[in-house]
Amino acid sequence: MNCGPTGNGLRWLDAAYGSSFTLTLSEGLSSYELLHRVGAEERHIVPLTRSAAYELLLRDEEDHISDLDFLDWEDEAAVARLTSAGFLPTPPETIVRAGSVVGWAYALEEFHCRTDRYLAALSERGRAFCVHRNAKGFSRVGYARRGDEVTSFEPGMPHLVNGTPAEAALGFVYDGDEPGDVAFLRFLEGEPGLYLPWEETEAELPAAAFT
Q: Of the residues 58, 101, 130, 135, which has the maximum number of CB atoms within 10 A of its CB?
């Protein structure tokens, strides 16, 4: 598995996504299986780059589709496909884009956190993790294993744990030297040794729109 542009496997998300992101990891699934398990129908899955998804999320409903840089608005088939899949004309609440690396599927969301509610289902073949940061600086980590939710916590805030403490469930101890979500991404780089290719996450990935 390849490292990101800054030479680390997951921590590049901090710089690339900035104030808000959700990363979900599911052991033993394909990218399409992940999308199906969070509610996407096969016929509504469309390949999108990160920049295209970002444009769709930020547009206003009254904006003409010709304003979308990635789309040839005269391509009726492309417009119809995006419309039938729920990307147009109303901007979706969130877009989940999914990819895969050896042994794992991953999903990325720009602003919201839809996937965390499906963490148990995403863990039926092994482990599943969800790392979420919102625009207010709040971060949350979820972990499930073999169909059961094990823990949900905010690093550095032990009184906000739901389930088993992170130290017992994962062996993760937050030392406060960096943002909590970044510390957990670093932890995942070590064990289970996860790395995502930055270039791939920017390119076209299977994507689903949700309202």
A: 130
